[in-house]
Design goal:
The protein is α/β, with parallel strands linked by helices and 320 residues long. The chain has 2 domains: 9-50, Monooxygenase, CATH 1.20.1280; 59-242, Ribonuclease Inhibitor (Leucine-rich repeat, LRR (right-handed beta-alpha superhelix)). It has helices spanning 15-22, 27-32, 39-46, 65-79, 94-102, 119-125, 145-154, 177-186, 202-211, 230-233, and strands at residues 53-55, 85-87, 109-111, 134-136, 160-162, 192-194, 217-219, 240-242. The chain has an 8-stranded parallel β-sheet with strand order 1-2-3-4-5-6-7-8, with no helix packed on it. Strand 4 (134-136), helix 7 (145-154) and strand 5 form a beta-alpha-beta unit. The relative contact order is 0.10.
Length: 320
Amino acid sequence: MEGDGEFRRWDELIPDALALIFKNLSLQEILTVIPGVCKSWRKAVTGPYCWQDIDVEQWSQHCRPETLDRMLQMLINRSSGSLRKLCVTGLPNDRSFSFIADNAKSLQTLRLPRSEISDSVVEEVAGRLSSVTFLDVSYCRNIGAPALEAIGKHCKSLMGLRRTMHPLEVIDKQSQDDEALAIATTMPKLKQLEVAYLLISTEGVLKILENCPELELLDVRGCWNVKLDDNFVKKFSRLKVVGPLVVDYFGMKGWDDCSNYSGSSGYLAWDFVAGDVGVDYDDEISDGDWEDDHSMEDVEMRFYDGFDLDNAAFDWPLSP
């Protein structure tokens, strides 16, 4: 094919094009296979092109805290300030959250379920998250109204908030209406709000509806103290309310991120409301379910911020 001008060699593709292709591969393949193919492919995966969207949510469920910290530092540093989306489960400490905030100038989607972060660190670094439009802090037990208020005050473009809790995580609380008030008073542009199993009252929800006129979906499944009159809800023509009756399995994620919302589109596709109950885009095999025998201890990771990591070991945890 050398004489045919219509074809190009794979190793001659520009890094941006290669990154689009590599996004269809697993995290393991991108980090351990692609760098060994050729120099141009190695350059693509060690540069920012592949790391504008970082999704290690499934993988991070099965790794040790120190491994997760090192992986995040490596991938976020590779993004070189171009990070737009980050999905990770179980941040182990406030330091990890601060590091993310330090590199969040372009960040739009931030999903941090089950993370061990505190009100104090969120209040301290929320100003660096001003570009975030979708935030998931579900099952984060150590934050409350102060953190949500700080997020609302600094993330002026926030359109989606997921603050789902597990019933056992709120069993010792009497009320979380202070979180509802923080949402109502600081997040007027919300279009999607998920507060399933949060201990909020009808009054708290009414405050949200009063102050968030653009709201299109409200998930109050498991919020048993919320009583909304059907005729009252009909006054909000664009609003879909799910709950408080629970009709699906706990923990389901049936909506797409608001970060992809375009103000010019005028429409958000709420998959769950449209009837796609049981369809979970995270049902794919996770990067933690690797079938090969080697762990990250067997993989030599080079070009980490200019340092040779021949002797640096990461554990690639396998699902139990």
